[in-house]
Amino acid sequence: MEAVADVTIAYTGEEALATVDDGYRPDVVLLDRHMPGQSGDEVLAALRDRDIDTRIIMITAIDPGLDILELPFDDYLCKPVERADLREAVDTQCQVLAYQLLGEYFEVEAKRAVIEAELPPGKLDDHEAFGELDRRADALADRTSRLLPEAEGLLQSFAGIDREGY
Question: How far is Cα 48 from Cα 50, in angstroms, rounded to an integer?
Fold first, then answer.
C-alpha cells in the first residue's frame, strides 16, 4: 500500500513562508535553491527560524560547494532526481521526523501519565497547563502514528509502564 501525501505547492519563497505562517505544518519540505523572489537558502533559514517540526530536502541543480556547510538542511539532492530516489529521501525524512516526535511524545506523555497517576482527576479538569500537555501528547501521538506505521506498538508499550509508586 502506497502512502498518501498531503501536498501543498508554493512557487516562490514568499508563498512558501506565507503558507507556513498561515498554520500549515509540512512534514517534509522540498526546496529548490533557485526560486523566484527569495532564494531557497533564504527560505531555508527563515523556515528554521520559525522553529517548526519539519524536515527539509534541498533539490537543486546547483552543484554543492563548501557553502552548504552552513545550510541547515536535512538532505540535498542534485537534479535531475529519479522519482524512486525522491520517494526514498522523503520516506527517510518522514521516519527521522517520526522518531524525533516520538522522543518528544515520550517526554510529554511521561509528565502527563505521572500527574494523572498521582493527582485526583478533579484537580486536573480545569488546569490549563495540564490541558495543553494533554492536547500536545495527543497531537504528537497522532502525527507520529501517521508518519511511522510501527509507532502504534511503541506508543502502547510506553503507555503500559506503571508510573504509580507502591
Answer: 5
